[in-house]
Sequence to fold (469 residues):
Amino acid sequence: MIRVVLPAHLRALAKINGEVRLAVDQPVTQRAVLDALEAQYPVLTGKMRDHVTQQRRPFVRFYACEEDLSHESPDEPLPDPVASGAEPFMIIGAMAGG
Amino acid sequence: MSGVRVLVGTRKGAFVLTSDGSRTQWDVSGPHFPGWEVYHVTGSPVEKNRLYAAPSGGWFGQVIQRSDDGGLTWEPQGSKFVYEGEVGQHQWYDGTPRPWDFTRVWHLEPSLTDPDTVYAGVEDAALFRSVDGAQTWHELPGLRQHSTSAAWAPGAGGMCLHTIILDPSDPARMYAGISAAGAFRSDDAGTSWRPINRGLKSEGIPVQEAEVGHCVHHITMHSARPNVLFMQKHWDVMRSDDAGESWHEISGNLPTDFGFPIAINANEPDTIYVVPITSDSHHFVMDGKLRVYRSRTGGNEWEALTTGLPQQHCYVNVLRDAMAVASLDDCGIYFGTSGGQVYASSDSGETWDAIVRDLPAVLSVEVQTLP
Fold:
């Protein structure tokens, strides 16, 4: 199972406590994780990436294994520890005050 | 009348203020959607417990929330706002073309007859409608695709469609206000639109009496007299007696005619209220005094209403959707400030009290009278 950590606003919106665990087919990519997340929690659709273009929203970042994966291709396989469930895929609201 | 419910949108969430008919004790619930910017919360005039809210934010975009129990519980609805057809371009602040880009919902206007139908005015300016209780949204593209739209430009807050008025006497007629494009009217239920800005004069655009380009801040109508419209423009308070075909200035003796909200007394269609602020570059009330101005003559002759409002060291603003009236025997008037106060008057503005003083900056205020 893939582990996903969401920011507080999105946890509240989707009524989630703690990490999300998702079944994701191989290869495990950003796109596959986000597709599975939105399928399980439709209210999150459009909150991390644009409804139409699927581009990552500007103030959303993706981290895993102490790396910033925000600018990686959405179809690039995620690190093995994420694919194995050893490490979470972290969706972050950029630090921008407020 | 057994109660009043005041719906408050703020920079950091929504609040629901309720009282019985005496309006002396208030229950404050919230923040709902804490941390989200709530540009508008409003209720269906058909089903009073059906509420719609529009939280948004720069991080995670738009959410639409709906309550079917008067704000006790909320459920997120659809938030997919996609422009129909060719997106097109409008002017940016510097006059260069820029593609339409959805940013947020500014205003929600529930149908006068169907609790599941609600309109949304959005930035970049466009009109959307839902007929399924906000689950899905579809643009009425005739407004955005008007032949003048390439010349529309954003106001300081963005290029927002902030005012939607539904004519209670004619289901096909509706109005929209856009900053900085102007006022528009549809006579076919939103399919086609035309600018209704004759009589408006605006500095800051190449042709001061242009067909479009005016920074309309808010428009209001009294249900008993739908052909009469009142407008607070960037500068100037305006009136139309012919459903927007022409406008004339009614600023009269106001100390400044720059402001955002304008409201009509629920029981007196010629009694109107504005909250003037200092200027376009000083978005706070003049001289440190919070004064609501009232005209009982449909404009031109204004009096300051100050009892209960701070008259020194006050530098707040009242935004365009942050003033509302309730249809009681003595008209109730409510407004919220950029300082987080929500003031109420239960005597047509003669006296005011703060219901709450320390909310986040208030973006919108609506009021419902409850049976």
About this structure: The two ends of chain A are 34 Å apart (CA to CA). Chain A has one domain: 2-93.
